[in-house]
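quick one before i forget lol
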Amino acid sequence: MVSNADGIAGPDVPRNREIIVAFAPEQVKAPFFLRCGALLLDYVLIVAFPVVCLLLGRVSGDDGAKLLNGDWNSAGWLIAILFAVADLVLLPAFSGQSIGKIAAGLRIVKLDGTPASTGTILLRQTVGYLITLLTGGIGFMISVFSSKGRALHDYLTGTVVIYAERNVRP
């Protein structure tokens, strides 16, 4: 049996449901440089595909204009775009983390600490990032001065990036 806030046991609350009590984003906010590291890892993984394909094109004998207009280069950019969409939009939408965030132990959650909805994260990762980029990166720098470590795209969507392990305990 799981008890509710009144101390009365009730069967309506599942045992594996996570209940967050007194969530304080200030205590688990993701450090700015750790967020930068996660973003850098995502960027390196995305850029690796065109670089590797360009090198493979060079090794296979392409040179000059043929190298830049060749099949290897085109394939590299196509793979990079597909990987970027998967890593920066789809993966966070379903797990709250990109590959960089997974490696850094970061997660996107709502302000109350519960998992953000797929729609919220899709909005954050597309429109929110676009607006942050249009500010010349100032939207990201806001997280340095925010007590909760929130960037512009977090303010726009009601999310926060936390540095915490969130496993449901039995």
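fyi The mean pLDDT is 83.
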